[in-house]
Design a protein that fits this description.
The structure holds 2 protein chains of 2 kinds. Chain A is of the alpha+beta class. In chain A, 48% of the residues lie in helices and 12% in strands. In chain A, the strands form 3 sheets. Chain A has a 5-stranded antiparallel beta sheet, sandwiched between helices. The longest helix of chain A has 36 residues, at 444-479. In chain B, helix 4 (117-134) crosses helix 10 and helix 4 packs antiparallel against helix 11 (302-318). The chains are: A alpha+beta, B mainly alpha.
Chain lengths: 543, 366
């Protein structure tokens, strides 16, 4: 239904078309190559530096370090690097020191040899990675990503030496996705740290990481990680295709990418999962999914996503299965409580009073006596207040927190009831709703939307309204796909084998296969008979 | 020209047919005319319905990947075939509007006496329209979830009603003349079992045509068992009231009273009705618009969805003046009205197809 309405909104299509016309300007803007009269490096050091000073000179974090080295300092050279993005120790000890100090001891005969770029690259620079560059664009790109570029007079090539090193947040425990059991480390803002964390979980040469740069202005590194041979090649190709289509100025967070590549842009449901924990992402990669890591954010995207993924946590697999299965079912219940509780309360008190046991009905009627608003208005008002409190709770400075909670608890809860503005049962219902919404954090914003819609329909049409909205949602969910995988799988379309991990969580030794719906490559995860089998007579083992 | 790109699996077809067959029978109980022997009438009707299903699936198996509208042209030639197809499209369309009307009647007469009927019919039709637009795959996916919901709630209701059941209400068995019994069982066969003729529009999209026969038969049997249990439950709980009540299931569930806490759970019946009726209307709606698009050789059936839905809503509101007329039509006129569509034409088509040796091989056809 949603899709139908939005399809009719031609506005967006026109918007898209307009963008396509602008595409040409968009590309030109970025291309340094065309701007420069002479894109390649010249042999003259002074000239090269002049061009670069024109390009980069105004910013004061760029350091031009000119020096000379070799026998009696005959060779002029210059280093260009970004202060703050480079590691000072490396530049001092491994680039400047060997060039200026060690080459001093070489004799005249070696002068020509030294002037050979091969020689410098191979024998003098004790840095892990050095590459030759020959045009201005490469030099600028290298500089911007934290490389140090070494120019030598008389050569029309330069050396880009990797000296990346900047201040970054250490690996800490993420604020979201807290666990009692399991690894505590979380991703950081640095792409390299994140990929290394993944590598440490999956030490396998088949774990491939492809990096592309997105964002014309930001040049953000975006990395696709997947297990070769397990991830469906068509899925990987599709991810690549959708990422390459992105032609925008900036990628600041993985949320940008999510909105560019998701399947249902008009759907309130998110069809791309995100996680902050390496173990979660590693587990998803092992199931055949593809992870998308973005430099500058700890949030890693995984595709395809299915709806029930929101109800699974990493801890489910680390704990023993029995209690976890109960918790799974509780999560489903909590999700339905959080979207349905106010609506059901409104429907029952407004239309279906006969469903309430008589004694409770009398209590509730007494509690609601004298309250000015109908149930649906009460529910919407309290829901609004709760959403405001929640939003304020996220944004407020920490020291004010206690003030807000006192105001929230006392004024909203206690005073509103005793002043006779809101019925006491409604406060209870909203409180339960609020608590239940945190059980499934991945869907909590969606639940808020659905809750409002359901409450309005329940106030107008009672149970019929609720069911109509739920049916509409079901149709929408059934039609939704995430990178080719039906969003409601494995429930609809039903695949019996995958039900092992939906309402119950089967023991690890019983999870023989990867999810059928994510891609059916190399399905078997483990040997068949792995169920623990202690020896029949345990006494015998002791002897 | 490909109107529907989706494919459904045989298990999805099974679920879909079960949901379709249960449909509005959640509230209307087929075979009610047989009194306390209604469950026997349903069983006999199931037998007749299975016979129908064999005809339908044999037809579908003869023309794999072709819908009713398409193979009518092959069997009867382009002109007569189109006339018959139009007849069928009317049948699906009318049946859809009847089910919609059941919704409207049920909700206005039982739960929301003050709300105009058009509200319920219109909202239901809108949801069905969105499902139809999304195609048969989506309807089939919905069916699994809705059906499991329905079966679970139904089981709960039966368990809660166990203490109110009086199985002596079912005695004496076969306490009516054979003629009456056959009339009742035929009524049960045409509504709901024979209505599966609508699946001749759907079986074409089955990914494994060979399984159609088994799926359909299994689905009808399961749905039949469900209706038999419902019938037994209603008679056992209500006794003689079950034969006269308009909505016996609804009346029976109303009686539930567990420790004065779980009382008056009839809303659950309404929910089940919506879930199953949604499937039934969606399949019929889909069959109508798809058939129409195939008949008119359109590239897509999407432009037809809303107009057909609007007409369906109008027809369902205008065709009866009251609930009684609707029920009388369903139980007295429907069994005869449905005969040509449900058994006459399909049987004739099958015979003609066999005699003409259709479908001809590629080289043999003109």
């Amino acid at each position: 239904m949603f899709q139908f309405i939005f399809n009719k909104m031609n506005f967006w299509r026109k918007f898209n078309k307009k963008n396509q016309n602008n595409k040409q300007n968009f590309k030109e803007d970025n291309s340094l190559q065309k701007k420069l009269s002479q894109p390649n490096l010249s042999q003259n050091l002074k000239e090269n530096l002049k061009v670069l000073r024109n390009l980069l000179g105004q910013s004061n974090d760029i350091v031009f370090r000119e020096f000379s080295f070799g026998y009696e300092g005959k060779i002029n050279a210059a280093l260009i690097f970004l202060d703050g993005m480079t590691d000072n120790a490396t530049i001092n000890e491994s680039i400047i020191r060997p060039l200026m100090y060690d080459s001093y001891f070489l004799n005249t005969k070696n002068l020509e040899v030294i002037n050979n770029i091969e020689f410098i690259e191979k024998r003098m620079l004790s840095v892990r990675s050095v590459k030759k560059v020959s045009n201005i664009e490469q030099v600028v790109d290298g500089c911007m990503s934290g490389e140090t570029v070494l120019f030598i007079d008389g050569l029309n090539e330069a050396l880009a030496i990797s000296t990346q090193g900047w201040e970054s947040r250490g690996v800490t425990e993420p604020k979201t996705e807290a666990v009692v059991r399991g690894p505590r480390e979380g991703f950081t803002e640095t792409l390299r740290t994140n990929t290394s964390q993944l590598r440490r979980k999956i030490r396998n040469h088949n774990l491939l990481m492809e990096t592309i740069q997105l964002g014309q202005k930001t040049n953000t590194d975006v990395c696709i990680a997947y297990l070769n041979g397990i991830a469906n090649p068509r899925l990987v190709e599709e991810v690549r295709r959708r990422l390459k289509r992105i032609n925008t100025d900036s990628i600041l967070e993985s949320g940008y990418i999510e909105q560019f590549i998701e399947d249902g842009p008009f759907s309130p449901f998110s069809t791309i999962a995100n996680s902050e924990k390496p173990d979660v992402v590693a587990a998803k990669i092992l199931e055949g999914r593809v992870a998308i890591l973005v430099d500058g954010t700890p949030m890693v995207l995984t595709v395809p996503m299915v709806f029930i993924e929101s109800f699974q946590t990493s801890e489910d697999y680390y704990s023993r299965p029995y209690y976890v299965s109960v918790i799974r079912i509780i999560r489903f219940m909590a999700f339905f409580i959080t979207i349905l509780a106010p609506a059901a309360y409104v429907a029952v008190t407004t239309f279906h009073q006969e469903m309430i046991p008589t004694s409770l009905l009398i209590t509730m009627a007494a509690a609601r006596e004298g309250t000015p608003f109908p149930a649906v208005v009460e529910a919407l008002l309290m829901g609004l207040v709760y959403e405001i409190l929640r939003e304020a709770g996220i944004r407020l400075p920490r020291p004010v927190g206690s003030a807000i909670s006192i105001v929230g608890a006392l004024v909203i809860g206690e005073a509103a009831v005793s002043a006779g503005l809101i019925g006491a049962p409604m406060v209870i219902v909203i409180a339960i709703t609020a608590i239940a919404s945190f059980v499934v954090p991945a869907q909590s914003d969606l639940a808020a939307l659905l809750r409002i819609l359901l409450t309005i329909f329940a106030g107008v049409l009672g149970a019929f309204g609720i069911i109509i909205v739920l049916l509409g949602t079901l149709v929408h969910l059934s039609a939704l796909r995430s990178f080719g995988t039906p969003f409601l799988s494995p429930l609809a379309p039903l695949s019996f084998g995958d039900l092992k991990d939906v309402f119950i969580r089967a023991p690890i030794w019983a999870m023989l296969n990867r999810p059928r719906t994510i891609g059916w490559h190399d399905p078997q995860r483990q040997e068949f008979r792995l169920m623990p089998q202690p020896p029949e007579n345990s006494e015998r083992v002791k002897n | 020209m490909k109107l529907e790109g989706g494919k459904i699996s045989s298990s999805q077809l099974t679920f879909l047919i079960i949901g379709f067959t249960i449909g509005s029978s959640v509230i209307l109980s087929p075979g009610q005319a047989a009194g306390h022997d209604a469950w026997l009438a349903v069983l006999a009707g199931l037998g007749e319905g299975l016979f129908f299903a064999v005809i339908y699936t044999s037809l579908a198996a003869r023309f794999p990947g072709k819908t009713l509208v398409q193979f009518n042209d092959l069997i009867y030639g382009p002109y007569l075939g189109k006339v018959i197809s139009i007849g069928y499209l009317w049948f699906f369309f009318h049946l859809g509007s009847l089910v919609l009307r059941n919704f409207g009647d049920f909700f206005t007469s039982i739960i929301y006496p003050e709300t105009p009927m058009v509200v319920f019919i219109l909202l239901t039709a809108l949801i069905c329209a969105s499902a139809t637009r999304n195609g048969i795959e989506v309807i089939a996916r919905c069916s699994i979830i809705l059906l499991s919901l329905m079966l679970v709630t139904d089981l709960v209701l039966i368990i809660l009603l166990l203490k109110d059941m009086e199985f002596t209400n079912l005695l004496p068995i076969f306490d009516l003349p054979l003629k009456e019994f056959i009339r009742a069982s035929h009524s049960a066969a045409t509504f709901p079992f024979g209505e599966t003729v609508a699946f001749l529009m759907v079986i074409a999209f089955l990914n494994n045509v060979k399984q159609a026969k088994i799926s359909t038969a299994a689905a009808l049997t399961i749905a039949g068992m469900f209706l038999v249990t419902a019938s037994v439950r209603n008679t056992a709980v209500l006794g003689i009231v079950a034969t006269t009540a308009t909505y016996p299931s609804f009346m029976a569930v109303r009686i539930i009273d567990i420790a004065h806490i779980l009382t008056r759970l009839e809303v659950i019946v309404a929910i089940d009705l919506l879930a199953m009726g949604f499937l039934k209307i969606s399949v019929l709606y889909y069959g109508t618009v798809l058939g129409m698009a195939q008949l008119l050789k359109l590239r897509s059936y999407l432009p037809l969805v809303l107009p057909v839905g609007a007409l369906m809503v109008l027809l369902s509101i205008l065709q009866f003046d009251s609930v009684t007329e609707n029920i009388a039509f369903a139980f007295d006129i429907w069994p005869y009205y449905a005969i040509p569509f449900q058994i006459g034409i399909p049987l004739l088509s099958l015979i003609v197809a066999v005699l003409r040796g259709l479908p001809k091989k590629e080289g043999g056809s003109k």
